[in-house]
Amino acid sequence: MEIAIRPKLDRADVEEIARKHLPGPVEVIAHEEFKDGFFNAAHALELADGRHVVVKVAPDKAHKLLRYEVDLMATEIECFERGLAAGVPMPALHFGDPEGGVMIIDRLKGISFPKAKDDMSKADLLVVRREIGALSARFATVSGERFGYPRKSGRTVADTWSASFQAMIADVLADIAENGSPLPCPAGEITALVAAESDLLDEVTRPALVHFDLWDGNVFVERADAGWRVEAFIDGERAFYGDPIAEIVSLEFCPDDESAAAVEGFLGRGLTAGEERRLTLYRIYLMLILIAECEVRGFDEELTANQRGWSTESLVKNLASLKA
């Protein structure tokens, strides 16, 4: 799939990056471009010495981006460095240049979760969901100095979670207004609903690392002796420091019984009423992002209509839940 903002690199470009930033002689014997991402370019290289790596390159800074997407590669590199140090299964990071928008990581040996599902029994699926929940909880063991996105601008950085989250909401609503994205209700109504939950948000007192993009495509699995196991998580560019409960938003993009297994793995218990309400706020935030990005990604008409349709439907449902 062609995405307008994704960098267009040929094999020679990618080989040059690898030779510049990897140690030792770099003799490339195979190349593959991954075209299923919506933001960064990603190219796999097989080297003559047996190394298998992926080179990721961020969009040119001249492109129109959403406010939260500025310095996105810097965020992903930080997520990898801190996640790996905390024992989160992620590909080894061989090189990271936040300013240049380049990172080089190991290529994983397994396959993406969506591709593996057809070969899994229901029991296998539930085991993997619980493992995804348990392993993703390791992100939350990492603490930030303050809440918000780790951007140079500090636009959303704050000492309280309510202040930071309201700034995050304000940014995406500003993107929506600026780009003319359709909303099912006035932006001011959404702002007021979130502001009314300040006390609830401030029950979160530690800025925990949240990946916030653990949908199935960002989970790789591999066969184990008795079934399947999680190999690693990828794509940490949406990460921020905030409420660990926000991680559940992407973990629950699956059938109800599988979602329950993921939450069980993540928390080891059910959600409290307060956590359920905060989770509703985080669903609203993600749906606003998905609506906003339709105007800047260069999607085709069919993809735009599909993403805008289901994300708006979910936004309406979750807004109604807050009002109830």
Describe this structure in words.
This is Aminoglycoside phosphotransferase family protein. Residues 33-276 form the Aminoglycoside phosphotransferase domain. Pfam families: APH (PF01636). It is a single chain. The protein is an alpha+beta fold and 324 residues long. It has two domains: 11-106, 2-Layer Sandwich (Phosphorylase Kinase, domain 1); 111-323, Aminoglycoside 3'-phosphotransferase, Chain: A, domain 2 (Alpha-Beta Complex), CATH 3.90.1200. The protein is 42% helix and 16% strand. It is built from eleven helices and ten strands. The protein has helices at residues 11-21, 72-85, 113-116, 122-136, 161-179, 187-195, 198-201, 248-251, 256-267, 273-293, 301-323, and strands at residues 28-34, 41-47, 52-57, 93-97, 102-106, 111-112, 208-210, 219-224, 227-233, 240-242. A five-stranded antiparallel beta sheet has the order 1-2-3-5-4, with helices on both faces. A three-stranded antiparallel beta sheet has the order 6-8-9. Helix 5 packs antiparallel against helix 6 (187-195). It is globular, with a radius of gyration of 20 Å. The chain starts with 10 loop residues before the first helix and ends with a helix. The mean pLDDT is 93.
